[in-house]
Amino acid sequence: FCSLPHHCTLYEAAQIIKHSPLVQPLNNNNNNNSTMAKKGSYKLTSASGDGPKTCAFFFSDKGCRNGANCKFSHDAAAAAAAAAAPSGDASDASSSVVSSETESDGEIIEKQAGAYASLAKNVPVATPKSITVDTTGAANPFWTAPAAVETPKAEAPTTQEKKKRKRKKSQSTPALGESIFDLGTEDANNQKGSIDATSPPKKQKKVATPNQQQHPTNNNIASPNGAAASFRNLQLPVASFSLPSVNAPKPTSVTTPRPPSPQHEPAPTPPPKPLPVATPAHLKWKDSVIATRKHDNYKNAFDFERKQQEEFSAGISAPHHWIESRPYGQWCKGNPAAIAIDCEMCETKDPVTGTTDPKSLCRLSVVNADNPSEVLLDTLVKPEWPVSNYRTWVNGITAKDLDNVQFTLRHAQMFMQSLCSDQTVVVGHAVHNDLLALRMKHHSNVDTAMLYVSKDDDGSTPSLKNLAINVLKKQMPEVHDSVNDARVALDCAEHYCSKGGKVAPVEKVFTRKARASTDAADTTMLLVHRLPTSTQPNHLVEMFLAYTNVKPKNVPDIIFSGSHGKCNVEFTTKEHAELAYTTLAGEEREDKTGKKQKRVSLKGGGYVCVRKMKKTN
Predict the structure, then answer these.
(1) In this structure, which of 188, 377, 533, 608 has its CB flanked by the most CB atoms within 10 Å?
(2) DSSP letter assigned to residue 382
(3) pLDDT tens digits, one per residue of 24-68
(4) DSSP state of 470
(5) What's the angle, vertex CA 169, arms to CA 168 and CA 175, rounded to 5?
(6) Can you tell me whether residue 609 is helix, strand or coil?
(7) d(CA 480, CA 345)
(8) Considering only CA atoms, which of 506, 505, 511 is closest in space to residue 593?
(9) How confident is the model at residue 398, as a pLDDT?
(10) 528 phi and psi, to 5 degrees?
């Protein structure tokens, strides 16, 4: 029996009636039937043609689910009367009522039958309300007359109640903006994609991105009290040094806190290089700074980022070991607009990794360009690694001189950062070497090696000795003194400014004296020249390893002039240098000075020359 009265489908109701014991198949061969029903049709019969029709389901095991609302009689007396009536009369006097659903599963005809009598005798009967049947409509209580459609559909009240519950659930779900996953519940999925949008979705709250922590860069050494510190008042362990042949004034002792932390972080793309324009004293050097930057070798020589990366790759230094001059401001208005510097370097070696640093700072001298007689700083510098080559023949510094020195590279960086803004003009000869030894990024530079050109040697830069002879008419000492070198470079730069940049080429008057054959400086080196501008020092190391299986000990920065560059490649011993030269394939020729050299072809065409340092037979 249908659990949803009056709303079951036509097919299901037909199956119930078909299998009910109270319903008999219509005999198509019965002559008493005046109307032939369709194949598979069934008839329901009443006790008499004019009496109330008895509910067949009421007297079944399941009973009638309609109860008092049933349109058929639940009266047991009517069922008994139907049983007493003769079967033949009942057959002849039948008042057949054809169901309105006969178009679906065949005709369902209500026919007189005496089948209810046997049931009425055994079933205890309660007297229900008698319902008058509308014989005009003759509607089946299990069906509703649909329009002419093949499969009528009618929703049961329980389906509507489910929809109501689903609507309530959908209204109680979170708004769309909060979480789309909350809408993907089982009930929402069963709604065939329908979403309750009676109320506007709540706006999703934006999650605030936390500000990145401001980390101080390693370009600065902070002051303990946070105040700007003057370079004159820094408390540094200065180790004064002077050569017997040169009377260099000692720097003034200073006592101040360390400089403040940086005010900004460097931008991802470097800003345009500043020019010295803050004061008239700065403007004096503007044209010389521009002339220095226009030199062909400036971009390569002052490529601090590349050098920083090379040192990091070689294990010599890390990026945070470098400093950079800060922007000009109130903190440096009392500082000199320009300074002249010179550094002395030695070679050091890491005892753990064996890495060598060929430009380890061992002396720093700073002269006030506004007052050249004032030496702002002159001190020895204790290298971080053990010294492997003091180069005493160049700088005059011995192991004994550095024994008790406590002034380190970080002290030197602290002093320079307290002294220099990005508009402070740094004057020197090949000053990029001094800045690299300090690991300091600075671009307001006046380099006398780039302001003057050599007369006799195309593409080369003049030495400081030749500049002193040609410009200042002054002889330079054999052993370098950094204070004196800084002052000579400053004087040559002043001469350039006074001439408005119109200076004569420098004649090569001074030539380096030939040292004895036991001097390793000549015997352990090979000159490599005609190098393309794209050449890096590591390229030369790779070339010698590939062609000779001999690894150079040191390849310094390449000095470029015009479209070519050169450098002196150093090997461990004289025998290594000789083996590397001999193993190179190629025709041997002599240059114009009579020194032998070989050509090494480049993969893109052209060649470079590898030349011996001394004339040989």
Answers:
(1) 377
(2) B
(3) 454 444 444 444 444 444 444 444 455 667 777 777 777 787 777
(4) I
(5) 105
(6) strand
(7) 11
(8) 511
(9) 93
(10) -115, 120
C-alpha neighbours within 13 Å on the C-beta side of residue 293: 15
* Cα within 13 Å of Cα(545), Cβ side: 10
Q: For residue range 333-368, what is the model confidence (pLDDT) as tens digits?
A: 999 999 999 999 999 999 999 888 989 999 999 999
With contact defined as beta carbons under 8 Å apart, do 79 and 54 qualify?
yes
**E strand or H helix at 340:** strand 338-349
Specify the 3-state DSSP secondary structure of 531: strand
CA distances from 323 to 158, 218, 239, 410, 537 (A): 80, 6, 22, 10, 23
Least confident of 264-278, 373-387, 545-559: 264-278
**Token pair of 258 as six digits:** 């360390």
Q: Can you tell me the distance from the alpha carbon of 324 to that of 326, in angstroms, rounded to the nearest whole number?
A: 6
Percent of the chain exceeding pLDDT 90 equals 37
CB contact at 8 A, 204 and 179? no
**Residue 587 confidence (pLDDT) above 90:** no
Q: Which residue has the tokens 């050169």?
A: 566
Secondary structure E strands in 257-336: 323-324
- Could you list the beta-strand ranges (E) of 22-90: 24-25, 42-43
pTM: 0.52
Q: Using CA atoms, how far apart are residues 445 and 464, in angstroms rounded to an integer? A: 17
Instruction: Count Cβ atoms within 10 A of the Cβ of residue 153 and give its class: 0-12 exposed, 13-18 middle, 19 or more buried.
Output: exposed
d(CA 525, CA 586): 19
